[in-house]
Design brief:
The chain is built from 5 helices and no strands. It has a domain of about 80 residues. The protein is mainly α.
């Protein structure tokens, strides 16, 4: 199995971005729209689970384009929480993989990159 592709921004940060080698990445889309709230038709329990999981994702990692993947993760977690008999090895693997996409474990956080949020100076208004 090949090694996962390193994000272009990580190449740029590390100084390993080469225009000759990475020229196919020049038109890589940049998603800036925020994740947003849960889908409208969801139950209150599902919306609460959305808020719980969205708050566990490191800031700046999940964007609007990631909503479908987050919905998959939420449905998997809801199924997992139905009871101990619902937790199968296959479900556990699916949950782990979906969590990895959002950097939700110590090892996975080292693999995702997010823009740093600007620091707010409380004395700037004075």
């Amino acid at each position: 199995m090949p090694r996962p592709r390193k994000p272009t921004k990580l190449h740029a940060i590390q100084g390993t971005l080469r225009t000759t080698r990475h020229r196919d990445r020049q038109d890589e889309p940049e998603i800036i729209a925020p994740l947003g709230g849960p889908p409208e038709g969801w139950s209150i329990a599902a919306k609460l689970l959305w808020a719980e999981i969205a708050n566990c994702i490191p800031p700046g990692v999940a964007r609007k384009a990631d909503r479908v993947m987050l919905e998959v993760l939420i449905r998997l977690v809801a199924k997992m929480r139905e009871g101990p008999e619902a937790m199968t090895p296959a479900l556990a693997t699916q949950v782990r993989t979906a969590c990895a996409c959002f950097g939700m474990s110590p090892a996975d956080r080292s693999r995702v990159s997010a823009p740093r949020l600007p620091e707010v100076n409380p004395f700037a208004q004075l």
